[in-house]
Design brief:
Structural class: alpha+beta
Number of helices: 11
Helix content: 40-55%
Number of strands: 10
Radius of gyration: 25 Å
Shape: globular
Mean pLDDT: 82
Length: 273
Amino acid sequence: FSQVIQSSFMYRLTSSFRRPSTIMAFLSMLLSSSLFLGANGVVTEKADLVKIQVYYEALCPACLWFFEHGMKPLLEKKGLQDVANFEFVPYGNSVTTGSTVTCQHGDKECQLDNLHACATKNLPQKDLPVFLTCAMGHGPSKTPQDVLSACGHADKIQSCFGNGQTQEAISMGIEFGKATETAGQEYTPYIKLNGAHSKLAEADLVQAVCSAYTGTPPEACTGVTKTLVRSQPAGEIEGLCYRDDAKVKAMAIAKERLEAEVGAAGVKIAGSA
């Protein structure tokens, strides 16, 4: 008798799954649950993405190191980018005076920061970290326009970037300055994981992300030692850039004076004939 009841129940259950409304309800239940099917059809635990906030400037030596030895390895490891959500803030130790942004490493850095800003606005999450890692690699040796040509997506970025000093890009830089101040940046690169400053992420981003992700770890995390994301790494990365407001402001004043002299006397460069 029990077998008859069981067979009747299974018949009604399978019959109900032929109705579109039942199928949609079942799919909705799966999506809202804490489990989902991984790439190999294995049920894995769903978890929030690791939020990574990167406060940096385009020509700081330690920022260049971070993108080459932190971001690039993460992007190359299968599945790690899929568990991360990136926010990039290309401002660093710049200083905003009114509507003017003066960068710690000169005008070229300002143009590169503006290029990065336009990328953050116009590229999707899957393309953005790849583009910025490429741009950081080419930035020191190429012009900003050549960086854009080398790293692609000019069709999405060029109108915002223009000649490197569009009002759109500058306005974004000013807003990034406010965000940098709010974040309490002490130096660059300054990395936050899930809202907390993480020196571990600055020194070893792969280990930090594998440690912070609470779901079923990607294959790339196999063999990676998990630790507290706020733990201190063995040593600081070299070339960190600290804010020197006096120096940057002096650069801004010197630039204003030079522009005023050029405007008054025509295009005249000291030492030229």
